[in-house]
Amino acid sequence: MDDQQKSAQVRDVYAHFGLAVYLAQCLEQSIFLHLVFFEHFPKAIATFKSKESWISAFNAFESRELGQTMGKLIRRLKEAGQPTEYIQVMLDEALQRRNWLAHGYFPDRAAALTLESGRERMIRELESIQSLFIEVASQIDAITLPVARNYGLTEEVMAKLMAQMREQYASL
To answer: Is-contact 17 105, C-beta < 8 A?
Structure first.
């Protein structure tokens, strides 16, 4: 393998690592949204007084929950009693993998990164972790989305929100 091929393979390792971390963050957002629709909204509706109080209560909930670690979000999700035993096992595995990525992946794989075969294994390993995060988020979303639709978060509303976000970020 020449230097150019080696550089491309190293970039691929970093790209797969970045995608895995991104997907871990997507999973955190899935957990947060689940808590919004199963915990926050039912309580907020009962105390709804004005648009301003609704926004204030949501902002406080969002700030508090998204300030938590992934482990604490998972604990809150389990306490809410929604995920099945299967999802709980997957969440535990996802948390372990996410923490390893964030705190120990490259130190643990320093020697492997220097070898072509090591980098190939790292890419396969990271692809497997990405699949885990996607699967867990999909399982949680399958529970959350029907409830979200009952609150008015339809496909049309989601498409409109995505278009607004794209427009907002395109102007940056």
So the answer is: yes
CA pair distance 81, 100, nearest whole angstrom: 26
Among 121, 96, 124, which residue's Cα sits nearest to residue 24? 96
Note whether 132 and 90 are within 8 A (CB): yes
For 84-133, how does the pLDDT look when each residue is reduced to its tens digit (9 = 90+)? 788 889 999 999 999 999 999 999 999 999 999 999 999 999 999 999 99
Measured CA to CA in angstroms, residue 40 lies from 44, 51, 156 at distances of 6, 15, 23
Residue tagged 């070898």 (tokens): 115
Token pair of 37 as six digits: 């629709």
Count of structural domains, the chain: 1
Range of the domain at 25: 3-170
Give the C-alpha separation, 21 to 161, whole Å: 24
Cβ partners under 8 Å of residue 158, min gap 6: none
